[in-house]
Design goal:
Layout: E1 11-16, H1 19-32, E2 37-41, H2 44-53, E3 58-62, H3 69-74, E4 84-88, H4 93-101, E5 107-109, H5 110-121, H6 137-143
Parallel strand pairs: 1-2, 1-3, 3-4, 4-5
């Protein structure tokens, strides 16, 4: 398993099935961490290639987990090596089961991204800016990414 230090992420891969959301998340990441290398991917082969090239990257998946079981199954061996976050427009119980089974992956709703954008337009500082200010789950994740715990094999304690 790759060791991750608890420093702000500098290599980020944003994968999604809805390009406007994926591009918006990548833009927020680049705005939040100006010196980072943030790439987007829209297909599994491209995602796997980027993950091989960037073993220290964090992964942001912009999708509904229940609709992408094949993706999670395909990534089950490498997910524990990467910090992962899900951004979705909705999270049902079935989504939370998938996230729990695949290592307790943290999730963020797209509505929370809208709040971040509103703060940004008001010129409030990001947590990584001059004034330390917590603005939500995305910046906390980018400042201190944690790898998932791995495939649990059960859906207890959801």
């Amino acid at each position: 398993m790759t060791e991750h230090n608890r420093m702000p992420a500098r290599q980020i891969i944003v994968y999604g099935d809805c390009w406007p959301v994926t591009i918006a998340v990548a833009h927020l990441v680049r705005r939040f961490l100006p010196g980072c290398n943030c790439e987007t991917a829209y297909s599994l082969p491209v995602l796997l290639q980027q993950l091989r090239r960037k073993p220290e990257a964090i992964l942001i998946l912009c999708l509904r987990p229940r609709e992408h079981l094949f993706l999670f199954y395909s990534l089950r061996q490498i997910l524990p090596d990467y910090p992962v976050m899900i951004i979705s427009d909705e999270l049902f119980f079935s989504d939370r089961v998938v996230l729990k089974v695949y290592g307790g992956i943290p999730a963020l709703l797209e509505q929370e991204l809208a709040e971040i954008l509103i703060r940004w337009r008001r010129d409030e500082q990001w947590a990584g800016g001059a004034r330390l200010r917590r603005t939500g789950g995305l910046d906390a994740f980018l400042l201190s990414p944690d790898p998932v715990t791995g495939f649990s094999g059960s859906a207890t304690d959801i």
